[in-house]
Amino acid sequence: AFFWLLSLLAASLLWSVCVRLSGRQDAALLPLGAAAAVLLQELCRFACFKALKKADEGLATLSEDGRSPISLRQMAYVSGLSFGIISGVFSILNVLVDCAGPGTVGIHGDSPYYFITSAFLTMALVLLHTFWGVIFFDACERRRAGVLGLVVGSHLLTSGLTFLNPWYEASLGPIFILMLCTGLWAFSTAGGSFHNVLKCLSCKGE
């Protein structure tokens, strides 16, 4: 979460500099600002991987059997989940403030589905960050630049789709499809399989 906050700080400083240099603050700068924020988040995710990798090596040297008590996949999951939670908190915070009043969404032609759509979008972003964290860490460990590019590209695509709002069916639908596909990809990356799912369900049945 700290690394995500660093990316938010860097994106805010970059936005302030761009606005001062350009002398304007209009909608034309928003896509560029969003793209820069995504790239800074992924850069901080990589910095988080390097920091956790160093910590993992330190834990391994201190342990009796020479192995770290925390696996890389566990660190990837926790890192992705923390990125998602702090991102979700910041994305929904202003919506909750507006929800407190005094205005009511829908009276002057605004969509009455604004709040429920924002909630679903925040949920999707939290899960996507968790999945991206698992895939990203595995790609860094295996040195797969193409996979890293796909993670960054899907993050940019998700951010870009939000600019289709308030045409919610055009943004929320593709984002949820991307979330499901990324979740299956992360599940496979973490070593999961359909056979394991069936085995898990059969154990529960017993």
What does this protein structure show overall?
It is built from 7 helices and no strands. It has 206 residues and is an all-alpha fold. It has one domain (1-203). Helix 2 (29-62) packs antiparallel against helix 3 (72-99), helix 2 crosses helix 5 and helix 3 runs antiparallel to helix 4. 20% of the residues are buried. It is found in: Membrane. Residues 1-16 form the signal peptide.
Strand and helix map with partners:
Blueprint: H1 2-22, H2 29-62, H3 72-99, H4 114-142, H5 145-161, H6 168-189, H7 194-205
Helix pairs in contact: 1-2, 2-3, 2-5, 3-4, 4-5, 4-6
Could you name the key traits of this structure?
single chain, 206 residues, mainly alpha, 7 helices, globular
What sort of overall outline do the alpha carbons produce when their principal axes are compared?
globular
Number of strands: 0
- The residue ranges in which pLDDT falls below 50 over 5 or more consecutive positions are none
| Helix/strand/pairing category | mainly alpha
What would the average pLDDT be, to the nearest integer? 85
> How many domains would you count in the coordinates?
1
Helix content: over 70%
Q: Quote the beta fraction.
A: under 5%
How many angstroms does the end-to-end distance come to?
A: 40 Å
User: Whole-number radius of gyration?
Assistant: 20 Å
Instruction: Report the total helices.
Output: 7
Please give the largest β-sheet: none
H/E series, N to C? HHHHHHH
